[in-house]
Amino acid sequence: KTRHYFTHFNPAERADAARGAQLANLVDLVGAMVVCKLLELLGFDAQKVKTFLDKNENFRKRLMMNRWTDQ
Fold this sequence. Notes:
Helices cover 68% and strands 0% of the residues. It is mainly α. α2 (20-41) runs antiparallel to α4.
């Protein structure tokens, strides 16, 4: 609903669209998925991708920063 609201600006969907920290969290999660897919396409297996994500402090902080904030 969030993508649809921000793409088509339908006022009826505004209440269901993520905003603020929720939207920032979604952006970070989509970014994480893109990085994981890119690493997979470059030939890294799932275990190496997991190891990379586990060791990357900045990446983990970005994903966790907004995770528990509802506003």
